[in-house]
């Protein structure tokens, strides 16, 4: 039997990281966020890939499902990838590819899985998932929040 090597690309159980996508949409110095039903933590709009989807296709689909915003994959631009612990997943790693783009003015509406849509800034860390906090820090350092 061999030991499993724990790296930034595996979690304590040796599982590969969860792959997800997220949308960075800033308005008036605040970042668009969502809270799923039955949860008190806010996340960036986005989610996981469906089989065969590119990252931009997955995000386009998730935005339509979660907040009713139509953003064609061709209008999304990859900004950066966050590597962190997935919230509520017992130490499982997360690789979240973040995108900008789409319409400047949006009127997000909570979809079936979403309980609330909100706009957060750097002062709202306590209600956000770990990867979201990392994004807020990066955007604050870049002068976007």
UniProtKB/TrEMBL annotation:
<comment type="similarity">
    <text>Belongs to the Nudix hydrolase family.</text>
</comment>
<dbReference type="InterPro" id="IPR000086">
    <property type="entry name" value="NUDIX_hydrolase_dom"/>
</dbReference>
<dbReference type="InterPro" id="IPR020476">
    <property type="entry name" value="Nudix_hydrolase"/>
</dbReference>
<feature type="domain" description="Nudix hydrolase">
    <location>
        <begin position="15"/>
        <end position="141"/>
    </location>
</feature>
<protein>
    <submittedName>
        <fullName>NUDIX domain-containing protein</fullName>
    </submittedName>
</protein>
<dbReference type="InterPro" id="IPR020084">
    <property type="entry name" value="NUDIX_hydrolase_CS"/>
</dbReference>
<keyword id="KW-0378">Hydrolase</keyword>
<dbReference type="Pfam" id="PF00293">
    <property type="entry name" value="NUDIX"/>
</dbReference>
<dbReference type="InterPro" id="IPR015797">
    <property type="entry name" value="NUDIX_hydrolase-like_dom_sf"/>
</dbReference>
